Amino acid sequence: MELAAETNLQQPHVLNVMSSMDHEQLVFCQDNQTGLKAIIGIHNTTLGPALGGTRMWAYERLDDAVEDVLRLSRGMTFKASIAGLNLGGGKAVIIGDARSLKNEALLRRFGKFVQSLNGKYITAEDVGMSTRDMEYIHAETSFVTGLPEHLGGSGDPSPVTAYGVYMGMKASAKFAYGSDSLAGKTVLVQGAGHVGSYLIDNLIKEGAKVKVSDIFEDKIQAITRRQPAVEVVPADQVFTTNMDIFAPCALGGILNNDSLAALRCDIVAGGANNQLKSEKIHGQAMLEKGMVYAPDFLINSGGLINVNGELEGYSKEAAMKKAEFIFDVCGSILTEARDTNTFSGNVAIDFAQRRIDAIAGIRTRG
Ligand code: NAD
């Protein structure tokens, strides 16, 4: 009773949030020697083991990290389902600045925690991580995907993710403009990281006018060297810049009260996870603004398709080909959303949930 009073166990806030979001498990990992502070979120394992990347980010508050891992792992459940994969939804976050705190010892310690879950969670790359980091994690666990190609892995998943985002953007253009061509359209890509850079390659090739924004100067220099035709937009002018299509490829929560008040575009189609700060409030706001929204977890599912290939026998060509399903499914979801006057993100969640419910039904009866 005293312990409960001291540690506030009478108000199990996190468990209530997990319950409202339907999570199975949240694993807090801590190690003084390496300084590791991480959280592994397992949302739903109905369709298979929970697979999702590890993100390393300097969260200001523990609550921010908890919220991120809960939202990201839930998104993975829907992503795996809509992509037709036999995987559940999970994700991990390591708290800290990847540029200064990431090292072999910390990553291997994290790998031991992943191993302790015995395959219920399989990790991969996300923001702040690289294929080299997956190698360190792999030293302690076999439950890791996205390994470098020289270790028999599928390597960086971002080219396939970006290709899927490009497919989703083309489907959105077909829906909004009657043609899937992006030639001449102005596309603003927020985040010139792994996904953003490969997406820009696809867009430039098709003849789109590309604007780009990043908070780090080295990323801007790298993308302007790689694609000199891009126009750089300062990070604080992203939402007031003229554009036809907004492609968020940085972090989540960027579709919020402030950004939506300023943003003028026909389509939002990008690779970032959890783009809406609140699905309910900002989904409704986008519906009212008449913006075409390509559901994030659908159009960025190429990366998951890629790492799933590693579990089944990998071929890059097959992964790319498989990611093309996004064009048709995105078109169907946008059409259903228009016909039912429903936010497209909710239509996509219903679509994904139906498969999970069907399989859960089989398991229950079996
Ligand atoms: P990354 O770390 O390589 O790139 C992210 C970039 O965004 C960085 O260059 C960073 O500096 C920039 N950035 C951060 N905040 C910004 C801001 N406010 N304005 C402008 N730029 C900002 O990560 P990534 O692998 O390219 O992933 C990008 C997004 O796509 C993430 O949300 C990730 O979860 C999602 N995603 C990635 C993959 C994948 O295959 N890599 C798959 C699915 C989803």
What does this structure look like?
With 366 residues, the protein is α/β, with parallel strands linked by helices. The protein folds into 2 domains: 14-77 and 87-151, Rossmann fold; 158-353, 3-Layer(aba) Sandwich (Rossmann fold). It is 50% helix and 16% strand. It has helices at residues 2-7, 13-21, 62-82, 98-101, 104-116, 131-138, 158-177, 194-206, 217-226, 257-262, 279-289, 296-299, 302-312, 316-323, 325-340, 344-365; strands at residues 25-31, 36-44, 50-57, 88-95, 121-125, 186-190, 209-213, 231-232, 245-248, 267-268, 292-293. Helix 3 links the parallel strand 3 and strand 4. The longest helix has 22 residues, at 344-365. The chain starts with a helix and ends with a helix. The model is unreliable at 1-7 (pLDDT under 50). Nicotinamide-adenine-dinucleotide (NAD) binds next to helix 7 and helix 8. Nicotinamide-adenine-dinucleotide (NAD) is lined by residues 126-128, 157-158, 161, 190-196, 213-216, 219, 235, 249-252, 271-273, 300, 303.
